[in-house]
Structure formats: C-alpha cells, structure tokens
Amino acid sequence: MTAASTTPLRLGTRGSALAMVQARYVQQRLQALGHDVELVQITTKGDVSTAPLAQIGGTGVFVTALREALLDGRVDLAAHSLKDLPTTPADDLVVAAVPEREDPRDALCARDGLKLSDLPAGARVGTGSPRREAQLHALGLGIEIVGLRGNVDTRLGKVADGTLDAVVLARAGLSRLGRLDSVTEVLDPMQVLPAPGQGALAIECRRADTSLVEALGALDDAATRAAVTAERTLLAVLEAGCTAPVGAYAEAAEGEDGLELYIRAVVASRDGSLSIRKSATGPLGGAEQIGRDLALELLADGAGAVVDAGGPASKEE
Ligand SMILES: NCc1[nH]cc(CCC(=O)O)c1CC(=O)O
C-alpha cells in the first residue's frame, strides 16, 4: 500500500458516536501518511439489541460483524476498542497496529460534583461491567450497583435525569466524545483498575494483506503495544483459570535498565467480598511473560477460588 495507491482503503467501523470518532482518528492518521481512506459503517448485534451483553454473546458481538466484513472483503481494515476484542485471535486476521493509548482509567460521573467518598450509603451507581461492580463493592462504601447498558449519552442521561446518583465509564471514551466535563472523579487505579486494553484502539486487517499490515504498522506505539500485550496475556491466562472479573493496568516507565513495564492486576468476586491484587515489573520486551507470570501468581494466591456468581459469560465491560 503506497501513497500513490488509487483505490481508497475501506475502514470498517461501528456506527456509534464513540466508534465513529475512533474511526475518524484512524482515518486522519492514515491520511497524514498519504493513504486515501473511506469509512464503512457496519451494524453489530450489540448496537441493535438492548439486552444484557452476556445474553447476546458477550463483548465479542461488537467485534464479530466487523471481522466478518474483513473476511468477506467488504472492508480492508477495522478499528476496534481494544478492550472489546476477545483474547483469542481471529484466524487470518492480525492486529496490525495499536496506536498510543488514551488515559485508561475509569471515571465517576456523579450528580452535584460528588466524588466516590461523598456518595451516601445506598447511592445508586450504574455500570454493566462486573469488573467495575466488583471493585466498587470491594471499597465497602455501601453503594448499590444498578445494571446499565447503552451508549455513553444514554448512560450520562441517567444521572442528568436523576434515575441514578452516578455512573462509571471509561475516561477515554468520554475524552474522545468531548464529555470530560461530566467527570467528577478519575478513579485511582489503587482502588479501581481498568479493563485490560482500556483506552487503546486495535487496527485489524487480513494477515494476507502484507503490504497493508506493514503500512498500518506505522501507527503502532511500542509502549502501548507492550502494555496491552501484558494486560491481555494476563487476562487470557485468567480466563482459563477463573471466572471472576479481572482488572489490569500496565504502564511503561523509565527503570534502572531502560524502559520497564509496571503492571497491576485484580481479580475480585462480583459482590466484592473477595479480591486479590498483585503487581509486577519487568522489561518492556518481556510483556507476554510478565502478564502470564502475574496471572499464574494470582491463581497461586487463590484467584481460581474467587467465583463470579454471574459465571464466565458475564465478564463483559
Ligand atoms: N464496552 C464499551 C466500551 N468499549 C470501549 C469503551 C471506552 C473506550 C475505551 O476503553 O477505549 C467503552 C465504554 C466504557 O467502558 O465506558
């Protein structure tokens, strides 16, 4: 794929406001490199149905339709939120780029400027994510978690109209949508760790399109790639060994021997009664091993016995 190529690259995206902003960002980055890129909207089951994600096939529903469009040749590349991408890779597809990530932390959007510690006992906090539910319960604030789905506007609307006292959302999504004004507290990873891959994008294409794979590689950010590789390897190992929700956050930081990864992870029961947290550091080049080793340590510490009452299908964000 060279700057001189005449047929535009077809970039598949979901039609939600967040997906469109993300796709336009990828389009702009590629256009800056001289590629002609057009957006192709693909509707997924997750966009049409309002049923709980676990009932309609998990977070994978957002991804499956895009992957089918890639494999059918309807689009040449697809932009996903990395945290929605299953840890099992798709045959014949490759994540050719993971651009520099946004701040991956979760954010509280509460009424009246309230912070987590200001929420009264019994406050109604909306989230559809078992990971957020587990970690919020583990803080022991006595808040009530209310299941919630829908796009970012719908969720924020439940606070604005008084149905809920607060919602918890990814700060990255709010930032991309220009809604950071709704954030009343960015949650400290010491209290709430984000989902593996949160705040990062994945640009996927057909493995056989070797020149496109190479061209997209220009958008890859090595530090982000290493961080999300550690987080997602940890998730993959834990998915095999436990059913409870998982949070993980890896950061690249300057260490004594150059750049190092610092990863923190949590496995917690949905009701917050049990939670195990651990951290590790290692060389940036050893991301997979760092993630795998930390997952095995969590399992050795009993992560497998931390049971998610909702079962494995309810890990969705
Ligand atoms: N599953 C929904 C989803 N997928 C990606 C994001 C936010 C953007 C990101 O994490 O990159 C969100 C919304 C949310 O969790 O608040």
From TrEMBL:
Reactions it catalyzes: 4 porphobilinogen + H2O = hydroxymethylbilane + 4 NH4(+)
EC numbers on record: 2.5.1.61
Swiss-Prot/TrEMBL keywords: Porphyrin biosynthesis, Transferase
Cofactor: record remark: Binds 1 dipyrromethane group covalently.
Domain Porphobilinogen deaminase N-terminal positions: 9-212
Top EC class of this enzyme: transferase
Record InterPro entries: HemC (IPR000860), Porphobilin_deaminase_cofac_BS (IPR022419), Porphobilin_deaminase_N (IPR022417), Porphobilinogen_deaminase_C (IPR022418), Porphobilinogen_deaminase_C_sf (IPR036803)
Residue positions where S-(dipyrrolylmethanemethyl)cysteine is found in the record: 242
GO molecular function (one): hydroxymethylbilane synthase activity
A Pfam family this chain is assigned to: Porphobil_deamC
Function statement: Tetrapolymerization of the monopyrrole PBG into the hydroxymethylbilane pre-uroporphyrinogen in several discrete steps.
Miscellaneous field: The porphobilinogen subunits are added to the dipyrromethane group.
Subunit structure as annotated in this protein's UniProt entry: Monomer.
Similarity remark: Belongs to the HMBS family.
Protein name (record): Porphobilinogen deaminase
Organism for this UniProt entry: Jiangella mangrovi
